[in-house]
Design goal:
With about 270 residues, the chain is mainly α. It contains twelve helices and no strands. The two termini are about 40 Å apart.
């Protein structure tokens, strides 16, 4: 049992007097933190050009498909699939720069003083980045539709619209997972340069090595779908998943995405901000 002494009572009264009897401040709404994080991501020149590059690269990719793809392969899915690959690189870079800003630009003291709960900031960044992916999808499909119409008009053929609603959802899920990989690397490494290098190793070097291993080693060929996240990523963009592929994707992304992200969040919450 605690006892309130005259000294303790006087201290409480003094604190109450200094605060003017005001109630405790209301926490900042999560929606406001999300909007602030979105503005921080694209207020810089790098962020603005990364966002603009989604549309620019989509147009360039569409032009290349029209110019070099065989006539019989000019379908709506061919355009959206081609656009999806460069978008799968740009979105993770946006995520990396967004997450590492507090450490690379040394704005962490300001951010975490205004919002002391780091977990809310990390969550707001994640929500904002997924929102960017949602907004980027209409751009990809609109440019793909424009390319499909243009390509069919140039070659004098009928436009082939072979994308269904499940295909659109697969496309969205594939790009979201790639963005979350960039988010995970940013949280885990907390350095823009280090996280970008790690992402390019993840996206380009590791798949090459794993594919070479699958071609040269029989024992790894059947194991690859269970341990290679890029194998599952490519399958998502192509659509038509069955139960075994969902299980393979679940295991690979649990190991390559969920587990490292959990470690990164824990270390981020405990690390010293300078």
């Amino acid at each position: 049992m605690s006892t309130i002494t005259p000294h303790t009572s006087a201290h409480v009264d003094a604190v109450s007097a200094r605060s003017g009897g005001r109630a405790a401040p209301v926490p900042i709404p999560l929606t406001r933190i999300v909007s602030v994080e979105l503005r921080k991501s694209f207020d810089t020149r790098a962020g603005m050009w990364l966002l603009a590059s989604i549309g620019i690269v989509s147009l360039l990719t569409t032009g290349m498909v029209i110019a070099f793809a065989p006539q019989q392969e000019l379908t709506y899915s061919a355009f959206t699939l081609a656009i999806g690959y460069p978008m799968g690189v740009i979105l993770p870079l946006i995520a990396i720069l967004s997450v590492t800003a507090e450490w690379s630009q040394r704005s962490g003291l300001t951010t975490f003083t205004l919002v002391p709960h780091r977990g809310r900031v990390v969550l707001a960044k994640a929500i904002g980045l997924v929102t960017v992916t949602v907004l980027a999808m209409p751009v990809a499909f609109a440019v793909g539709a424009l390319g499909n119409l243009t390509g069919s008009a140039i070659h004098g053929t009928d436009a082939v619209w072979d994308q269904s609603v499940p295909d659109v959802l697969y496309f969205f899920l594939g790009n979201t997972l790639m963005l979350l990989v960039g988010f995970m690397l940013g949280v885990l490494i907390r350095s823009s340069t280090g996280a970008i290098v790690a992402y390019f190793i993840y996206a380009f070097v590791a798949p090459t090595l794993l594919n070479f291993l699958a071609l040269s080693q029989d024992w790894f060929r059947d194991l690859q779908p269970w341990v290679d996240p890029n194998y599952s990523q490519d399958a998502l963009f192509k659509g038509g998943f069955h139960a075994e592929q969902w299980a393979q994707s679940g295991i690979t992304f649990a190991v390559w995405l969920v587990l490292p992200l959990a470690v990164g969040v824990v270390t981020l919450l405990r690390s010293e901000v300078k």
